[in-house]
Each structure stands twice: as structure tokens, then as C-alpha cells.
Design a protein that fits this description.
Shape: elongated
Structural class: alpha/beta
Strand content: 25-35%
Number of helices: 11
Oligomer: single chain
Order of helices and strands: HEHHEEEEEEEEEEHEHEEHHEEHHEHEHE
Largest sheet: 7 strands, mixed
Number of strands: 19
Distance between the termini: 107 Å
Length: 440
């Protein structure tokens, strides 16, 4: 049996309306699930208690006025729940930060944006928005503010500034909002922006002109060794390309091969650098009060933190002179940890943000043989707190016949240690803590 002409159109419209209603119902259910149930404030508990008391007393005394007053108070609470949900459920927030990595002593900045309901009608409300900051940050600006949300109000913007105090991986957030009903009876605390990880990398300490010269000298000596011991015929050759300087043409090889070839020597390739950080606790507990009064702590934690700063300073200085900087430390379980194998200084700084001093760590001389990807012309910089004569001899033997070793220490080494390193071609950098008057 055929349907009337308008029946199919009516059915399609009904199906479309049902689909829209289902979609809005699912969206409302999702908002309700992520919105906590309102909690009564002190005033709200008082109103609820008074309302229940009036209803109970009115029923016992058969007083309709008391029952009506109690019901009115409870209705007021229910109305507050509905209004708090209407404001809190559609709230959306976002966090915008220029970078997720900051340096100790720098200010971390972010902007929080809050948007309310997209419906043309709805209540306006003043919210308390708060950003959670961990101990690694010290708030420069107020981490909470009152913002206004409503259908005809532009998105609320809240700027947060915090000073990075300690290195490591920390979490910023979550951003929470507090919504209260107009009567002050109920409160909803809801997270609107998920927490995010921020990496605080070590700061740099000032390197003296002598220290900078030692780094530059080590790199220059390393570059001078590249390609030594061979003739021009041993240089790498490649076919001539338009724009290559004529002085690089190898005429003998070009005549032999029948086409122009140019020299491409390995001297143009900057050296690589490996920074080995000593994470043994005993290396930083041997600093006495005569050596470094500020770092004479029993656990060696303060001395190790300065060694991390020294390693970051050396890494930044070498990154400008080498093609790749790799951080090597002893990891948990006796493995060798490599950071920055791709050649990025950022990876090395992030690795320095994660290192921790340990009592069961291996010696640097046990870690260096496991270094992967070190070229024959790579240089090694060892950062430690205190170096003995035995350790100095082991370091020299680990890079026998090489002048590409740099020892960076917190306290000046003994003359015997310095002599062993000098004879082995190693350079010594002493980077003391600023203000350590006992250092010579």
C-alpha cells in the first residue's frame, strides 16, 4: 500500500530531529560525566539542615507553613545545583606555552583560555581559576584569578608566570575552576585543562677566559689531527659540480679518471664531543671544608648539582665548536646511558635534567668503553667533583696517545693529578662555585 505524499517527508524530518536530539543527549551526558557533583558550602549545609528540620518539625506539629518553608529551602538547593551544572558543564579550557623546556633561573610563561557555553542564552558567572604549580617553580604572578564567563562574554584569558627553581621534569597543572551558584550554597571544582610536563634544564655558569681557551684549544688540536699522515691523494674525491672552487680540483686524478674531480678532505668536518658526567656520590663527598665550604654537605648533593651546571656549560661551549655532543652517564642496572646521539644540544640538556647522583654508580673509566658512535677524532670531556691520581692515570690510559681529553672539576686537582693529565695530553678546567673563597 502506497504512503501519502507527505508521509515520507515527515518521516525524514522526524528521523533528523531524533538524530539531533540523540547527539545533544550524548554531548550532555559526556559533560555531566566529566563534571563533578556540586558540594554544599557551609551555607549550603546550613540551608539543607534548616530545610530538613522545618519539614520534619512541620510534619510532627502538623504546621503547613513550616513544611512549605522547608520545601522552599530544599528547592533553592536543587535550583542551585542546576545552575552550577549549567555553568560548569560546558566550560572548555586550553593552555598555550611558548616552550615546554626552560632553564633554571628563567621565567616560564603560559596563557590559559577559558570558553563558556556556545548557546546564545545562559547565565553569566564569575569563576575562580587556578593553575597548579609544583615545587620546581616559584610563582612570579598570582596563580589564580577571578574571570567572568557568559554567552556574550569573550573568552577569558589568564596569564601565569613562574620562575624555574630546580632542574628536572615537572608537571604544570591541572587548571581547575571553581563554580558557585548565585546563592553561595553549592560549589563545583572541576579540572578544565589537563596537566602537562615541563623540563627544567640546568643553567650555565660563567667560564673564564682560560677555561674557554682550553676548550677552544682542545677542539683546534683535535681538528688538526684529522687527515694527518696522508697526502692529497688520500683525500676523498668526488666529481666536480658547477660552483666548486678551481683550487680544489685534483688535476692528476682528473686526468687519470677522464673527468674533473675535486678534493673533499675530512678536515672540513668538525670533531665530535663526548661529555661523561661522573654520577658517583663518593666523588662529591670527598670535598672538604677547606676545598669548598659552600658544598661541604655530607651527601654530596649540592656539589653534584654544581657539577651538572658545569656539564651544561661545557656542553653549550662545545656545541658551538663541534658537529655533535653526546652525554654519557651510568644508568640504573649498569647500562651506559647515551643522550644526544642525534647531535642535538637540546637532548643533552634534557639528559642533564634527568641525571641523579647514586652510591652504586660505576666509574667513568668503566663507562667510556661503552660509548657508541664515537669517531676516531672525537674528544672526551669528563666532569667530576674530585679526581685522584689513580683515576687520572686510568683516564689517560683510556685515551692513550690522544690529546682530546678535558677534565672539568669543581675543586683544583692536586699537582700530581695535574701532572699526570698534562703528560697524557689532557687539559684541565676548574669551574668553582661563585663565592667559594677557599678556592685558590
Amino acid at each position: 500500500m502506497s504512503q501519502p505524499p507527505g508521509t515520507s517527508t515527515l518521516l525524514r524530518r522526524a528521523g533528523a530531529a531524533r538524530s539531533v536530539l540523540d547527539r545533544w543527549a550524548k554531548r550532555a551526558a559526556a559533560m555531566a560525566r566529566r563534571t563533578p557533583f556540586p558540594r554544599p558550602t557551609a551555607r549550603g549545609w546550613s540551608v539543607i539542615a534548616v530545610g530538613i528540620g522545618l519539614i520534619g518539625g512541620g510534619l510532627v506539629a502538623t504546621t503547613s507553613v513550616a513544611v512549605s518553608a522547608g520545601l522552599l529551602l530544599l528547592v533553592l538547593v536543587v535550583l542551585g545545583i542546576a545552575m552550577a551544572f549549567v555553568v560548569a558543564a560546558p566550560l572548555r579550557g586550553s593552555r598555550a606555552a611558548p616552550r615546554a623546556m626552560v632553564q633554571v633561573g628563567e621565567v616560564y610563561r603560559e596563557r590559559i583560555t577559558l570558553r563558556g557555553t556556545t548557546m546564545p542564552i545562559g547565565p553569566r558567572s564569575t569563576l575562580l581559576v587556578r593553575e597548579q604549580l609544583e615545587d620546581a617553580f616559584a610563582s612570579v604572578s598570582d596563580a589564580e584569578a577571578l574571570v567572568e564567563i557568559g554567552p556574550s562574554v569573550p573568552p577569558a584569558v589568564f596569564d601565569v608566570e613562574a620562575l624555574a627553581m630546580h632542574r628536572g621534569r615537572t608537571v604544570v597543572g591541572p587548571v581547575t575552576i571553581r563554580v558557585e551558584d548565585p546563592f553561595g550554597l553549592l560549589r563545583i571544582d572541576r579540572p578544565v585543562v589537563a596537566p602537562e610536563e615541563v623540563v627544567v634544564v640546568p643553567a650555565s655558569t660563567a667560564l673564564s677566559a682560560m677555561d674557554t681557551g682550553a676548550l677552544a684549544g682542545a677542539v683546534s688540536a683535535d681538528e688538526g689531527r684529522v687527515g694527518q699522515g696522508g697526502s692529497a691523494d688520500d683525500s676523498e674525491l668526488r666529481p666536480y659540480r658547477p660552483g666548486d672552487p678551481i683550487r680544489r680540483v685534483h688535476w692528476a686524478q682528473s686526468a687519470r679518471r677522464g673527468e674533473l674531480h675535486v678534493r673533499q678532505t675530512t678536515q672540513a668536518q668538525p670533531p665530535e664531543a663526548v661529555i661523561a658526567l661522573d654520577v658517583r656520590r663518593e666523588s662529591y663527598q670527598q670535598l672538604g671544608r677547606d676545598d669548598l665550604a659552600e658544598l661541604a654537605d655530607l651527601g654530596g648533593d649540592a656539589a653534584f648539582e654544581h657539577a651538572v651546571v658545569v656539564a651544561a656549560s661545557v656542553a653549550r661551549a662545545l656545541a658551538a665548536r663541534t658537529s655533535r655532543v653526546v652525554l654519557v652517564t651510568d644508568d640504573l642496572g649498569g647500562d651506559t646511558r647515551h643522550t644526544g646521539d642525534a647531535g642535538g644540544l637540546t637532548d643533552v640538556l634534557v639528559g642533564l635534567a634527568d641525571v641523579r647522583v647514586r652510591g652504586d654508580a660505576r666509574r667513568v673509566t668503566d663507562v667510556l668503553p661503552d660509548v657508541r658512535g664515537r669517531d676516531v677524532h672525537g674528544m672526551t670531556a669528563v666532569v667530576t667533583g674530585h679526581c685522584t691520581a689513580e683515576q687520572a692515570a686510568e683516564l689517560v690510559s683510556s685515551t692513550s696517545g690522544s690529546s682530546r681529553g678535558i677534565l672539568a672539576t669543581i675543586v683544583p686537582p692536586d699537582p700530581v693529578v695535574r701532572g699526570i693529565l698534562d703528560r697524557g695530553g689532557w687539559r684541565t678546567l676548574v669551574v668553582p662555585v661563585a663565592g667559594a673563597g677557599a678556592l685558590r
